[in-house]
Amino acid sequence: MTSFDSQTTADPVLSVEDLTVQFPSDDGLVQAVRGVSYQLDRGEVLGVVGESGSGKSVTSMAIMGLLPRTARVSGRIDFKGRNLLELSEKEMTRVRGSGVAMVFQDPMTSLNPVYPVGDQIAEAITAHHDVRKEVARKQAVELLDLVRIPNPQQRATEYPHQLSGGMRQRVVIAIAIANRPEVIIADEPTTALDVTVQAQVLDALQAAKEETGAAMVLITHDLGVIAGQADRVQVMYAGKVVEAGTVDDIFYTPRMPYTLGLLGSLPRLDIKSERLTPIAGAPPSVVNMPPGCPFSPRCPMAADICDREEPTLEPTTDGRHVSACHFRDDLAGREPTDLFNPTSVDDAEAVAAGEKNE
Amino acid sequence: MSHSAAEVLPEQNERTPVLSARNVVKHFPVRSGGLIRRQIGEVQAVSGVSFDIYERETLALVGESGCGKSTTARVVLNLQPATDGEVRFEGTDLNTLNRKDLQRLRREMQIVFQDPYASVDPRMPVNEIIAEPLRIHGLYDKGGRDRVRELLATVGLRPEHGNRYPHEFSGGQRQRIGIARALALRPKLLVLDEPVSALDVSIQAGVLNLLQDLQAEFGLSYLFVSHDLSVVRHISDRIAVMYLGKIVETAPSEELFSNPAHPYTQALISAIPVPDPRKERTRERIVITGDVPSPANPPSGCRFRTRCPKFANELSDAERTKCIDEEPLLVDRGQGHPSACHYAQVRQLI
Lengths: 358, 350
Description:
The complex is a heterodimer of chains A (358) and B (350).
Chain A: E1 12-25, E2 28-41, E3 45-49, H1 56-64, E4 72-79, E5 82-83, H2 89-98, E6 100-103, H3 107-110, H4 117-128, H5 133-146, H6 152-155, H7 165-177, E7 183-187, H8 195-212, E8 215-219, H9 223-229, E9 232-237, E10 240-246, H10 247-252, H11 257-265, H12 304-308, E11 314-315, E12 322-323, H13 336-339, H14 348-357
Parallel strand pairs in A: 3-8, 3-9, 6-7, 7-8
Antiparallel strand pairs in A: 1-2, 1-4, 4-5, 9-10, 10-12, 11-12
Helix pairs in contact in A: 4-5, 4-7, 5-7, 7-8
Chain B: H1 5-13, E1 19-31, E2 39-53, E3 58-62, H2 69-76, E4 84-89, E5 92-93, H3 99-106, E6 109-112, H4 126-136, H5 144-154, H6 171-183, E7 189-193, H7 201-218, E8 221-226, H8 229-235, E9 238-243, E10 246-252, H9 253-258, H10 263-271, H11 277-282, H12 309-313, H13 317-325
Parallel strand pairs in B: 3-8, 3-9, 6-7, 7-8
Antiparallel strand pairs in B: 1-2, 1-4, 4-5, 9-10
């Protein structure tokens, strides 16, 4: 684990600037990503959290150039001095795998069911390097060993269906690091797995990262995984980054009501909690979004300004800890229970009305 | 520790449990792929599970996929017949009932499924979804409409939204609809099969709060099936940890987390990430290797031994022989609560 202090912004391996992704639909323009910017430093792990539909996966798909043609993408994605959004498909193919590699949630969709896994890893190697097949096969076995698959020689000859879910995901990780990428994007890599297997896969991911020295974007909805793995964290809501900072900033001194709400919603393994404080309501539709802060309909601190003006990301506790909230300074020292109701009602308006009645 | 075993159990033992399961076994046949499809083996999904649930109590069944927790839940509701064993509801053995009596008893036990998208009919308005159990049991004509409105309000939805269709609701709201339907017949017991696993955390918390409120208001008992130990710690009074069709450890909730005795429980607790960076990065991890063996061919003796860190690293050959030859019973070996390990030993992990 790298320490946060040694990180500098001087030499980012990947930088995303004002990325927007829109999908035309029958109901209007779906604004999946609305101006996301970040820099990924060498060797660091950037955790991206957010609920379904917050745009965390679409951002990564845009980086990999994997969005459907109908998607309208704008902004810049700088990787090794080139804007990935301007590359041709052929050039992009060269970047994928060797420069930026991706690990998806479901390993079965990334693996070909009719080839032995060893061959699939070897194929990833020969696709980017001019090596003989036997050499690539040998490297494939070494990679399987690296991601802690027992008996790799034997496993390399097996087909995906012969492996368990956790082992398949480790094969996908082996493929991802086969060409020593500089960036690994892992999108919910452990979500479909059991906890004991999740621990094994996270271990493999850690080993892969150490071996290649790659930086990693780790997308997950699991704040526990983020706490254990990430150096820096980005919280996304309705297509935007609403808070970003070191993992300690986000967990110990959050400055965005949504982040506090998430933390207060979590049942904890380590502490007995009597009552959770959910965030009432649901995320807004990203079609035809109203002006103002997208979180304001669910936010207990919302004031008039929140409905008029969308807050921008501004520094809070220090320059790299930023939050998009008009009242970010008022959040110092506040606990989730100070803001949110331990309600069981689903409706944000009803909760607000209840408060006024009291 | 708010409840200890000594505080909670003896008093309750004098009462009749709402639900009691004894040595429940469920095997599924494995058939050959050929034309005759003869039986070539069986999957032992549940292999002798016993538990009691008392009034106003939440018992959680936790474990990883394939451990038999959902099958156990379905078998106790008689949605799938048990291969062997006995299930009693308030003292009545379900096997002795005829169809009519069983249907009447079904009112008392209802189930909420994991996927709110799959468990409600997309072509029915919500009012009808909730009214359906009332109609089936012939109760709708006596004030059914008002009952439906009342149920919607009870689960935190607006009664005036009852004419809408399921797709107009969010995942959390749909799960509330499923809960309203389950409550329609005023059951005593709810079986909750991964009720919040498909929901985002901020939504999940509201549904968990609702379940707590409903329990307090209606005196419900819950059988809460989940893979998520954090959720389970929050909501349950007692926990039974399952592995490969068997309960390996059971204890009052706080006791299980403070004094886990079975190596599998310990591994589970240590594997679950905690949303606190400093704690998470300094925690002791018990890594278990490999995957759950096939329930069609479980290991002899202790079913966990093939992945057990204690078996692999701590035990002598003589001690291991016992794990291989002799199945450990679920009994208290001096740890304060029952666990199914010959060499059970409390380890503090949190």
